[in-house]
Amino acid sequence: MTDLIQTVKNPLGALGSIYTDQYELTMAQGYFKSGKYEQQACFDYFFRKVPCDGGYVVFSGLDTLLEVLSDLCFDDEAIAYLAEQGFANDFLEHLRAFRFEAEVLAPREGELVFPFEPVVRVRGGLLEAQIVESALLNVLNFESLIATKASRLREAAGPDKKVIDFGLRRAQGFAGMQLSRAAVVGGCDSTSNVFAGYRDGIPITGTQAHSWIQSFDTELEAFRTYADAFPEKCILLVDTYDTLESGVPNAITVGKEMEERGERLDGIRLDSGDLAWLAKRARKMLDDAGLDYVKIAASNQLDEHVIKSLLDQDAPIDAFGVGTRLVTSYDCPALDGVYKLSQVDDKPRLKLSESRVKVNFPGHKQVLRLIDEQGMFYGDCVVVDGQTEPDHMHHPFDDDKHVAIEGFDNETLLRPVMNDGEVLVDRPSAHDAAAYAQERLDRLPGEHKRFQNPHVYKVGLSEQMRDLRDRTLQTARKTHLNEDR
Amino acid sequence: MTDLIQTVKNPLGALGSIYTDQYELTMAQGYFKSGKYEQQACFDYFFRKVPCDGGYVVFSGLDTLLEVLSDLCFDDEAIAYLAEQGFANDFLEHLRAFRFEAEVLAPREGELVFPFEPVVRVRGGLLEAQIVESALLNVLNFESLIATKASRLREAAGPDKKVIDFGLRRAQGFAGMQLSRAAVVGGCDSTSNVFAGYRDGIPITGTQAHSWIQSFDTELEAFRTYADAFPEKCILLVDTYDTLESGVPNAITVGKEMEERGERLDGIRLDSGDLAWLAKRARKMLDDAGLDYVKIAASNQLDEHVIKSLLDQDAPIDAFGVGTRLVTSYDCPALDGVYKLSQVDDKPRLKLSESRVKVNFPGHKQVLRLIDEQGMFYGDCVVVDGQTEPDHMHHPFDDDKHVAIEGFDNETLLRPVMNDGEVLVDRPSAHDAAAYAQERLDRLPGEHKRFQNPHVYKVGLSEQMRDLRDRTLQTARKTHLNEDR
């Protein structure tokens, strides 16, 4: 089935090249016409704010992105459409021969990344590096957002509870194709979404809806029929009529009948009402009936805060089915990642702004992760490419703040993942990426992981990097604002 | 290009059948095994809450849904995958022959729809009507959400300003394939998204990014080169270095040079800072230079509230580029649409709940839209299928409230759109659906359209419908709770 799985990885196929904002192509034509298109450009993907006021982002989406970039071409249909839109013939002939051959650097999927540091770096011809902007942002912003949200759910649920993606029905449309993998990368155990299971080889799960129960004359008949059909993994939805008056007693009846046949009822699911209160009552009823092995699953508008609250109340819930609030990242439905030009040929570039945090860092950069003696992450230092042992790290926006970082071990975060059209790294399974994310989270101090006012993880600039930024800034001000500072 | 456009309309293709929650297939196997699968079932799609605390929802997504339902089949790959997941062979053989042949009723795309009324009705075999649930919800919830958000932007901008979807980069992943059409249905003029232009035949638009400007040594050179390449539709982004010190003066220089060549600068775009203040200053600078025909476009975290505020301040902005907050419906990123079983064979069905608003309306239903003497919408009456002239309408949850509705004209909202696997209606273009939505909005009284505390549009039940609901409720309580009320 491998071939087809490769195909469903990139549902855009050859049309990925027009999964883009028109201005990318307009600029590309401008670069082509003005002869600038082969100038060597470097772009950085980064973000300025962590979603949900959290302390970290789980990097995800690289797998999908590599698929899209590998398939990138302008086929006859795309060329014909662009011709109708008024693009020039010579430019379109150039696109017909186009392949994406730029160098791409990125962390491993599941890596923890932080505001302002370069997360993905693309270096190649100005035209080719420019036109991938929209698709790159679309994929990385979304999958990293969902992986981050899932990670928060896992953080709330702890290592021993199940957390399951139930959200396809409320997902933002075709985002449903790709989100479940990101959810697993971030910490979910499985998904209800069959397509995602097929696409990404992740575990799928599911039992019955209210409609199953309603389609029978009685709840008991509905439960019995389900237990007959699925004796191996029978989870009964107990809230269709009344959870404690009808659902749980009927589930107990069926559970005891299963026991007599040498089977075991797997669980019950609560989907409405006060979940903490109901779970405690249901647990007691099940235990009193000798069904202490029957698990309790809960769903209904869950998020990390509700899960934390339920567990703080000692609600005996074994599995959480999370829908809308995971799959849309409901309280923060976008990651604000941007893709900024940082160098053209040998000239570092930046955009000026009244707001200092909106000035990007110019030049070719790398990120060194600083590791303390306990193996925990201390901070990330953005350095000029090639620099290995900075001794100081400067706050990016506050000139008064700097720290000595001699003696820390460090790791290089960005590694080449694609060049000359070839993917250079093994493509991790969702499971492998998830294991990596968890391993990294274990090394991130707890104060960066809490939900309320997490401590800001240090991201700074090496002296060389800071000097490059300041020089480029001065030059830009002189050039563009006739200032002489 | 028509064939290919049909293909990109449904990127799921034959795998649409597994774009579903596993429990749909688990239940389907249960229905199959227990012999219930051919019972005639009726499901209703409806929602309980309008997104963004608004007063109406613009129905969208039918076009995509009809495509997905028409293509629905279980191909060899899907069957093989489901076999690996443990589904039974006889059931999978049944799926191999499966085609979706149920009857689907729906309003026209662009129709205004309201909480609690059936929006889409699916009637057919229990198995076939069940397994389309996840895909139907996924598509309709999302596209209606975006159309509704776009409609609010249009409401804020008024009829004469341009509103453009700029959001692909922050869209929730592959949702970017389908969202722009919904945005146009709701009231956007065009999109930056080339794929969407291709897929849905909607206008695309775009100029240049900061990276274009940065790739040149000076802003003036960047503007000149762009004007040379695109003299017909040249819009210059003026905030890369300093909007009023650098961007606008350089744009004026280029605009005057274009005038000398007999060309016209189309516009400038503001993308940061205080847009009202900058637009006024820029307008004056342009006017003073004799460039009063040059338009001003604005972007940067716009939504309906910011647009309204800008226009309330008389900001001279001609076009709004809206990104993140449109494409994710940022302040309310999900429509809570559900799909509930309302009848099996001749038995009306409902789910009980402690919360009265969560009890669904049973039976086969239709919606009559009541029209007053001025042709304005007065309210919607949910009736038992076939009922045409109800004389009273009852509040669905408050027994004390009812109104006489004799003498109102009415329209039937739900019409057959698919049956026996055939699509029965003309598929509207985005433009046609948008025109229909606008025509309907013009007939919705203003109090339902305001952003703050909109007046709740009346949705009620005919006496016959109310009686059916109450009888079914009593029966359900008797059957499932041993109550005798």
TrEMBL record, chains A, B:
<keyword id="KW-0436">Ligase</keyword>
<dbReference type="GO" id="GO:0047280">
    <property type="term" value="F:nicotinamide phosphoribosyltransferase activity"/>
</dbReference>
<comment type="similarity">
    <text>Belongs to the NAPRTase family.</text>
</comment>
<dbReference type="InterPro" id="IPR041525">
    <property type="entry name" value="N/Namide_PRibTrfase"/>
</dbReference>
<dbReference type="GO" id="GO:0034355">
    <property type="term" value="P:NAD+ biosynthetic process via the salvage pathway"/>
</dbReference>
<dbReference type="Pfam" id="PF17767">
    <property type="entry name" value="NAPRTase_N"/>
</dbReference>
<keyword id="KW-0597">Phosphoprotein</keyword>
<protein>
    <recommendedName>
        <fullName>Nicotinate phosphoribosyltransferase</fullName>
        <ecNumber>6.3.4.21</ecNumber>
    </recommendedName>
</protein>
<feature type="domain" description="Nicotinate phosphoribosyltransferase C-terminal">
    <location>
        <begin position="365"/>
        <end position="468"/>
    </location>
</feature>
<feature type="domain" description="Nicotinate phosphoribosyltransferase N-terminal">
    <location>
        <begin position="19"/>
        <end position="141"/>
    </location>
</feature>
<keyword id="KW-0328">Glycosyltransferase</keyword>
<feature type="domain" description="Nicotinate/nicotinamide phosphoribosyltransferase">
    <location>
        <begin position="162"/>
        <end position="343"/>
    </location>
</feature>
<keyword id="KW-0662">Pyridine nucleotide biosynthesis</keyword>
<dbReference type="InterPro" id="IPR040727">
    <property type="entry name" value="NAPRTase_N"/>
</dbReference>
<keyword id="KW-0808">Transferase</keyword>
<dbReference type="GO" id="GO:0005829">
    <property type="term" value="C:cytosol"/>
</dbReference>
<dbReference type="InterPro" id="IPR007229">
    <property type="entry name" value="Nic_PRibTrfase-Fam"/>
</dbReference>
<comment type="pathway">
    <text>Cofactor biosynthesis; NAD(+) biosynthesis; nicotinate D-ribonucleotide from nicotinate: step 1/1.</text>
</comment>
<comment type="function">
    <text>Catalyzes the first step in the biosynthesis of NAD from nicotinic acid, the ATP-dependent synthesis of beta-nicotinate D-ribonucleotide from nicotinate and 5-phospho-D-ribose 1-phosphate.</text>
</comment>
<dbReference type="Pfam" id="PF17956">
    <property type="entry name" value="NAPRTase_C"/>
</dbReference>
<dbReference type="InterPro" id="IPR013785">
    <property type="entry name" value="Aldolase_TIM"/>
</dbReference>
<dbReference type="InterPro" id="IPR006405">
    <property type="entry name" value="Nic_PRibTrfase_pncB"/>
</dbReference>
<dbReference type="InterPro" id="IPR036068">
    <property type="entry name" value="Nicotinate_pribotase-like_C"/>
</dbReference>
<dbReference type="InterPro" id="IPR041619">
    <property type="entry name" value="NAPRTase_C"/>
</dbReference>
<dbReference type="Pfam" id="PF04095">
    <property type="entry name" value="NAPRTase"/>
</dbReference>
<dbReference type="GO" id="GO:0004516">
    <property type="term" value="F:nicotinate phosphoribosyltransferase activity"/>
</dbReference>
